[in-house]
What does this fold into?
Amino acid sequence: MLKKYFQDKETINYVLSKGGITFFFRMIAMGLSFLTMWFITNFYGESVFGRYSLALTVLQITSMVFALGLPTAFLSFTGAYSSQKMIKGFLFKSIKIAIMSVVIPTVIYFVFAQDISEYIFKKVSLSPYITILSISIPFMILHEILCYYFLSLKKFITYGLFMFILPNSLFLLFLILSKQLLVDSFFTFLAFSLSIIITVLIGLLNVFLKNTSAEYPIISTKDILKKSVPMMISGIFLVLLNWTDILMLGRFETESQIGIYNVAFKVGYLALFFVVSMNVVIMPKISELYHQNNFIEMKKIINKATQVVIILTIPLAVIIIFFSEFILSFFGKGFVVGSTTLIIITLGALFNAITGNVDQILNMTNNQKLVRNIFIVGFGLNVILNFSLIPNYGIIGAATSSLITNVIVNMIFVIIIKRKLGFYTFI
It folds into this structure.
């Protein structure tokens, strides 16, 4: 089995070398992210971290909606472009669409910051966060588009620096400076925003200072949106799918149970670390091979990438499952009761990892509408299961709903990939 696996050295080298770079950068980002979270909670307290988290969530959701799916679509389109000039031209075209898209939410958040804080969130102290958020929206979207631009050029190191290292490092630096200057607590969110803004400005300089001229591809805004909007809708329903359990637990369970489930969910989904990281490596390659009609090479890349993910994920999942109580004890003795919940969530994440990057494989092969429809069905199924299981089984019911939904949704993806592309992702 292993001998056969290592026969195709060229494909293995591509998957392991590029995947290794992504794993490395993502692990550093996780460490920096933990440090920033630790810094805010320890030096500013739970309330400030709560406001920061709320503002960040609103920013991320707004950016996801008004990015119109352009970052993911970027890779799908540019896989057909043979020159860097055309990719650069498509970047400028995407930036223009994004800027036009964010005008309305930027103005609304800026003008009505106080009203949104007082009447929607019932937290007057959130007002400066909303004002900062309004200015941050365009840069948040541009940051993602820029990163996918570097990814489309297969500049994985540049992508890693701009996506993970630079913004997280600047964020931590600004947090330390803000504490030294004894500024107001909303500077925690301003520090995050500044890190994104500066990263975007450096990224744009990187693009504009290159000697490569831009060649605009002949494609209308309507055609771009026709592909990108279904990807945006898929992204929204994927987020809803992941958050349905917690939202519905809020209706049926106590805050302590929700807290236990939230920790178990985050720990269990560490099993997705490798599949999410590998996604970055194979997306541009799949798009390129699809436009070349090279399905044989596509199958090889996808199979090897999925097999690498399986080899790396199984030991991690086994550790989480067998040491579930020990891991949860780090968060407090009260969290240990969530060990069964953690095991069930981890099994769902493991199944997700074993099937591979199924949704993005379909997105990169012009099947984005199918992805959208599957996630909508998955969301509906998860809601029904949660309504049925949470009232009687609490957080274990929520975890079971997540597991069943994961298995069904990913099996549907696997079957459709087999029918559409002619192969399974893992063999």
